[in-house]
Amino acid sequence: MRDKKATKVFYTEKLGFKEFGSVDYEGYLMLEKDNIQIHFFEFKNLNPEENYGQVYIRAENIDNFYQSLLDNKVRIHPNGQLEIKPWKQKEFSILDPDSNLLTFGQSL
């Protein structure tokens, strides 16, 4: 993450994550949703156009989650619309503010 506040706002207000932990560490952010925890490290010089970071998150009720993101005006990746993949996963992808690719998938 380049900006802790921007990352926190995106993940909490747009994706429904919550901050956890009892200490607010400088340059470090811990977020969770359901049984998922994501930890972020500050990297102020990160160039989003050169970022190849990606995470695959297994989800339940993916149709409802996808719709909630659309309702929240979260931009779906142009190549990541919700669809059933040949490997029997229903998936979609988004980019966070630092161009980390987040792919959400549910087994069929």
Architecture blueprint of SSEs:
Layout: H1 4-14, E1 18-19, E2 28-33, E3 36-41, E4 54-58, H2 62-71, E5 83-84, E6 89-95, E7 101-107
Parallel strand pairs: 4-7
Antiparallel strand pairs: 1-2, 2-3, 5-6, 6-7
Describe this structure in words.
The chain is of the alpha+beta class and 108 residues long. The chain has one domain: 2,3-Dihydroxybiphenyl 1,2-Dioxygenase, domain 1 (Roll), CATH 3.10.180.10. It contains 2 helices and 7 strands, in the order αββββαβββ. Strand 5 and strand 6 form a beta hairpin. The chain is globular. 12% of the residues are buried. The mean pLDDT is 95. Belongs to the bleomycin resistance protein family. It holds the Pfam family Glyoxalase_2. Keywords: Antibiotic resistance. InterPro entries: Bleomycin-R, Glyas_Bleomycin-R_OHBP_Dase, Glyoxalase-like_dom, VOC_core.
Side by side, the strands of the main sheet go 4-7-6-5
| CATH H level, superfamily name | 2,3-Dihydroxybiphenyl 1,2-Dioxygenase, domain 1
What's the CATH architecture name? Roll
Estimated structural class = alpha+beta
CATH topology: 2,3-Dihydroxybiphenyl 1,2-Dioxygenase, domain 1
Radius of gyration: 14 Å
Poorly predicted parts: none
The CATH class name reads Alpha Beta
Family: Belongs to the bleomycin resistance protein family.
InterPro entries: Bleomycin-R, Glyas_Bleomycin-R_OHBP_Dase, Glyoxalase-like_dom, VOC_core
Keywords: Antibiotic resistance
Protein name: Bleomycin resistance protein
